[in-house]
Amino acid sequence: MEPFLAVIVVVLLGVAGYLYLSRQSTAPTDAKRPPNGPTEVAKPSKPVAKKTVKHHHAHHHAPHSDAAKAKQVHLPDHALLSHVLKGHTGPITSACFSPNGRFIATASTDRTIRLTLRESLGSKNPTFKTINIPYDYATTCTFSCDGKTLGAVTADGQAVHLYSKFKAKPELTHTFPIHEHPQGVASLLLNDVGDDWTTVVTVGKDDDTDIRCWAVDGTLLQSTNLNQLQAYHGVQSKDNRFIAVASFTPEVKVQYMSKPRNPETPGCA
């Protein structure tokens, strides 16, 4: 029995030693392997990274915000600024003074022309008259030399409108189409040569370099081509005798306006 017991003891000791050595060999591997806890501890690092990115993002946009504020800086008005006309609800397309300086006409894309009395500009509510242009708007406007007539050219209808009686309620006295200017009109001139007749002068726009003279009833009196590639703007002298047109070429052509011998058949040259 004793040898048998000795064998059993040796076997048990061998098994115990094997288990001990196996446990010691697996212990470093388990130590290197992170437990479940650290994965949850690493999660708070993400919000920290986001905060860092947001902070950097704010510094990145700081120059743009400063530039936007710089653009909004209000520049002081000129010391000689007299008045600011308000009341239109759209861009202003044209403005002109009457010859005596009493009225200021302003045309806008809001389909109106406002006649403001200059003497009332210093008051809180300036006095003005409104001319409505249904379904259209004026691209340019001008007064006649005597200040009794206001002329305007419409955009869509391509027509000339003549108004009078500004002190009471402006009335449309004449209107006629000007389709001969397919690209619109750069300038409108009301030429009063004498008391017997008035000529409406239209200066073509862009590559339409025609100057056309009309009677107030829409009769085309004469047409002249300046042959200057493009026309920009036309003006007339105060004595109604000359018309000058600014154009693309480095020269200005001056046209002479002549009074006809027969007042019933006006014309221009």
UniProtKB/TrEMBL annotation:
UniProt biased composition (Basic residues): 48-62
Stretch list, region Disordered: 27-71
Domain of life (superkingdom): Eukaryota
Keyword Ligase: no
One cellular component term from this protein's GO annotations in UniProt: endoplasmic reticulum
Protein keywords: WD repeat
InterPro entries reported in the protein's UniProt record: WBSCR13, WD40/YVTN_repeat-like_dom_sf, WD40_repeat_dom_sf, WD40_rpt
Swiss-Prot/TrEMBL WD repeat ranges: 85-115
GO BP terms, alphabetized: endoplasmic reticulum unfolded protein response
PANTHER family given in the database record: TRANSDUCIN BETA-LIKE PROTEIN 2
Name this polypeptide is given: Uncharacterized protein
